[in-house]
Amino acid sequence: MKVTVDFEECLKDSPRFRAALEDVEGDVTELEVKLDKLVKLCIGMIDAGKAFCAANKQFMNGIRDLAQYSNNDDVIETSLTKFSDSLQEMINYHTILFDQAQRSIKTQLQTFVKEDLRKFKDAKKQFDKVSEEKENALAKNAQAQKTKQHEVEEATNILTATRKCFRHIALDYVLQINVLQSKRRSEILKSMLSFMYAHLAFFHQGYDLFSELEPYMKELGAQLDQLVVDAVKEKREMEHKHSTIQQKDFSSDDANLEYNVGAANGVVMEGYLFKRASNAFKTWNRKKPDHNRRWFSIQNNQLVYQKKFKDNPTVVVEDLRLCTVKHCEDIERRFCFEVVSPTKSCILQADSEKLRQAWIKAVQASIATAYREKGSETEKTDRKSSSSTGSVESGSEVKEKLVQGESALQRVQCIAGNSSCCDCGLADPRWASINLGITLCIECSGIHRSLGVHFSKVRSLTLDTWEPELLKLMCELGNDVINGIYEAKVQRMGVKKPQHGSQRQEKEAYIKAKYVERKFVDRDSKPSCSSAQKTTVISQSKEENRLSGSEKSPKLEEHGKIPSQSSVKSNDSGIQYSFDGSQEVLASTMSANSLYEPGHLAPKGEKRDSSVFHDAKRVPPGLQLYHAAYEKNLPDMAEALAHGADVNWVNCEDNKATPLIQAVLGQGSLVACEFLLQNGANVNHRDVQGRGPLHHATVLGHTGQVCLFLKRGADQHATDDKGKDPLSIAVEAANADIVTLLRLARMNEEMRESEGPYGQPGDETYQDIFRDFSQMASNNPEILNRFQQSESQKF
Q1: 654 and which of 590, 660, 698, 769 could share a cystine (Cβ 3.0–4.6 Å)?
Q2: β-bridge mates for residue 601, sequence order
Q3: CB 145: neighbour CB atoms within 10 A?
């Protein structure tokens, strides 16, 4: 370390020492000014950036409004939607950049100024004070007279003590100076390096985003060139038509007939006519003649009129075969004719005699045509072939033991089917959908991103940082498992799966049909045999309306509800049905009418009794997800979601628990919880006891799940019906790990709420400790098994 001020010169208190001090103090003062200025400029930059992001977001919303307005034009709507989504991503990247600037420049340099420079100033004050005391002692010692021995001794003692104190304080001051000069370099470079890395990540993300968008932009550019050519051609045609029409003579009625008579879209003739009122007075409206004028048309063997184009047509004559038309000369108005039907007559007035003759001929021609046509229409029958039901065979899952130290790409691609894109088959995919558990190529990942995060959450296997529980989740599923669910009916339906060389539009249509519309999911497949299918099935005879066997269920008889074949509906609350001839009724698995007693609070390892169950045709998707979460069966969970299960399905007959709570109470699976959370599970839903997933994980001592729920935004202040929050439960159970996590999370929350400059160190500590706990929970869970399960029984 380079020494700015020499310690030896400090003891001598030489002029060189004083000069060096003066230079250092001036330099520190200037440094403080420069750092304060830099921090203020950073604050101004961040404020301007936030204003830019806000304005950019308004601009992006304007593009989305324009896209919605242009919903009748697929090209404009699709393009503007894609562009607005990309701009939204860039706004998010900008927000991250400004947040990192605040952390690296503003917070870090402010901390250096307020802490290290403040210590320097305090040391300088003490040094200046002791220096002044030393000078006074020297002066007093010099002024002591030889004749006064006691004054000489007193002055000598004071000088000796003062010099000793000066040396200590001067040495401390010099040490503070040298440490500050050394630290300033690392602090400034550290903050600036972090700031530059934030810029690197920002431009990298932007480059990746627009690299995905570039093929579409090139394709759109080609379409735009063709649109320009078409527009020029259409312009020439319209100019020619304009000049042709302009040369026509509009003075005669023949020209008007050319516009009013046509045969397009079944319209025989149309145009404006005056209509006499059909009330008792049979009068014309003289004060407002335009109220008599209507747009009449002859179409589909009917005479109808409209006042405005958007109005529904008013039918004057239902069937022209039952009416007649004749001139009307016995009224004062000219050019009138009458349409007479068996129930009423309608007097109409044209604008000229030729128009009247044209209308009369058109009505007569329509009457003749209606008589020639056959009145009966051929009925069309839609034949719908029902596909045979078959169970989705997922096969044995290949779960290789992964070597520590491998990258996320290597680990994920080891899973069956993950070495090629899940949707187009391109080899070596570098992207993944974390909520689906599949790998994707860059083009398919861009299409997935356009679906929205509620369908697919896309992440890079090489550029993004992967949390251990997410990486473990990806290794539990894989392309083969998911395609076995979402492409179960592709071959039966004769759908051709796109390849990596297919057009982007073809891939987009296929991916949307696969994941959004779920057209290829075999909804009639029989669920796999697990506790998710342990459901009470009561068969009822058609003729005798009795349960198969000897007696009806006493619990069903007690309520007097044995539903018929047509009355039983399927829903996610646990009621199911079947449409076969045996009229089977699938009752609620955990309702009062069921023979199955709830057992999700049973100790681990205790199997639920299945002797009372019969074979089930179907299981409600919500119930399948509920039980699969209990058993950590991720393929079954994915299948239930594909069949339309609500990830927050509530079992009203089992303490209002959700699949996420079941994942805690069952196998205690960290991966099952992460899968549900990534698919939108509510981490703060509470059961009838007022306990959410965080409560149950704390009671059972599942440290990894507690860590996961805290990271995913669980409310640790929520109390159950006994008034206990998770922290109080962990303290009573003396679970040191969970108490540490909860207290650290609470402290971090308080730091975030305060706007002081000292929140960042606590935030870094929080992130480091939670990262360590996540690693242990995912890779070495046995380290966290220090909490005895028996301790939870007292709760």
Answers
A1: 590
A2: none
A3: 8
Class of CATH domain 264-371: mainly beta
| Percent of the chain predicted with pLDDT > 70 | 72
Residue whose C-alpha is closest to residue 16's, from 174, 184, 182: 174
| Sign, CA torsion 76/77/79/85 | positive
Look up the CATH superfamily of 7-234.
Answer: Arfaptin homology (AH) domain/BAR domain (1.20.1270.60)
Give every CB contact of residue 652 below 8 A, 6+ residues apart in sequence: 573, 574
378 neighbors 357 (Cβ within 8 angstroms): no
Instruction: Please give the pLDDT value at position 287.
Output: 60
Q: Are 527 and 624 in contact (CB under 8 A)?
A: yes
Question: In the prediction, which pLDDT does 565 show?
Answer: 33
Query: Are the C-beta atoms of residues 593 and 559 closer than 8 Å to each other?
Result: yes
Please give the CATH topology (third level) of the domain spanning 408-516.
Answer: Annexin V; domain 1 (1.10.220)
User: In this structure, is the dihedral angle defined by the CA atoms of residues 639, 645, 649 and 652, taken in order, positive or negative?
Assistant: negative
The CA angle 309-314-318, to the nearest 5 degrees, is: 135
Indicate if the pLDDT at residue 788 is higher than 50: no
Residue 304, H or E segment: strand 302-306
Give residues with Cβ within 8 angstroms of 786, minimum separation 6: 735, 736, 737
CA dihedral of residues 294, 297, 303, 308 (deg, nearest 10): -40
Tracing tokens 């709830």 back to the chain, one arrives at: 598
Please provide the average confidence, as pLDDT, over all residues in the chain.
75
Tell me which range, 198-212, 368-382, 518-532, 566-580, is most confidently predicted by mean pLDDT.
198-212
- Do strands 293-299 and 302-306 pair parallel, antiparallel, or not at all (unpaired)? antiparallel
DSSP annotation of 496 reads P
Give me the pLDDT at residue 57, please: 92
- Domain extents for the chain? 7-234, 264-371, 408-516
CB atoms within 10 A of CB 436: 27
Q: Please report the pLDDT score of residue 785 as a whole number.
A: 60
pLDDT of residue 59 exceeding 90, the answer is: yes
Task: Give 708's Cβ-side CA count (13 Å radius).
Answer: 29
Please tell me the distance from the alpha carbon of residue 767 to that of residue 780, in angstroms, as a whole number.
19
Amino acid at 588: S
The CA–CA distances, whole Å, from 158 to 149, 162, 173, 427, 605 equal: 14, 6, 22, 86, 82
Average pLDDT over residues 304-316: 81
C-beta of residue 343 within 8 angstroms of C-beta of residue 393: no
pTM: 0.42
**Helix spans in 70-144 (H):** 74-101, 108-111, 117-143
Q: Coil, helix or strand for 155?
A: helix
The full 3-state SS of 552-576, as one line of letters, equals CCHHHHHHCCCCCCCCCCCCCCCCE
CA-nearest of 61, 109, 58, 204 to 50 is 58
Q: Which two tokens stand for residue 425?
A: 């088959």
Residue 47 CA to its chain's centroid (Å): 27
Q: How far apart are CA 115 and CA 109, in angstroms?
A: 10
First to last CA, the chain: 59
In sequence order, which residues have a C-beta less than 8 Å from that of residue 457 and are 6 or more positions away? Answer: 433, 434, 435, 678
Residue 629: C-alpha distances to residues 241, 720, 791 (Å): 69, 23, 24
Interatomic CA distance for residues 754 and 752, integer angstroms: 5
pLDDT, average across residues 9-25: 75
Q: Taking a C-beta distance cutoff of 8 angstroms, is the pair 267, 283 a contact?
A: no
The torsion defined by the Cα of 191, 713, 699 and 748, in degrees rounded to 10, comes to 30
